[in-house]
Amino acid sequence: MAMQGLAVVPLFAGYDLDLGRGRIFSYDVTGGRSEELGFAATGSGSLFAKGSLKKLYRADLSAEEATTAVVQALYDAADDDSATGGPDLTRGIFPIVGVITEDGFRRLPDEEVGALARSILDHRLEFPNGPRAGLL
């Protein structure tokens, strides 16, 4: 099916209660599994999203900071990849964002993600390339 262009490349994330930490698993088009460390992205814009996350990710991010980082990364991916859709403020279409902790999964309401997307867009009007990462 992959050779015919009919492939799904999943990304699974969850919280491992035994290890006391989150885990992310990505799969390639043939079904091979890899455990990712810290962050991951899939899809045509994943190269750009991962490049953004490399500069923004830290292991000690709060849920709010991590959410901001992933929406920033999506914005970067959509900016550089024509097949990646970002937040659409005009139509009120926002990414689905979830937070996974030892307490379980929580989907952020569209209103919260929308406010974050608007804040990021407002900042990007002044700084089109997004936030700057420290050099050390």
Description:
With 136 residues, the chain is of the alpha+beta class. It has a single domain, classed as Aminohydrolase, N-terminal nucleophile (Ntn) domain (Glutamine Phosphoribosylpyrophosphate, subunit 1, domain 1). Helix content is 34%, strand content 18%. It has a three-stranded antiparallel β-sheet with strand order 1-2-3, with no helix packed on it. A two-stranded antiparallel ribbon has the order 4-5. Helix 1 (46-56) runs antiparallel to helix 2. The longest helix has 18 residues, at 63-80. The N and C termini lie far apart (45 Å).
Oligomer: single chain
Biggest pleated-sheet summary? 3 strands, antiparallel
Structural class based on helices, strands and sheet pairing: alpha+beta
Q: Please write the string of helix (H) and strand (E) elements.
A: EEEHHEEH
What name goes with the CATH superfamily? Aminohydrolase, N-terminal nucleophile (Ntn) domain
The total strand number stands at 5
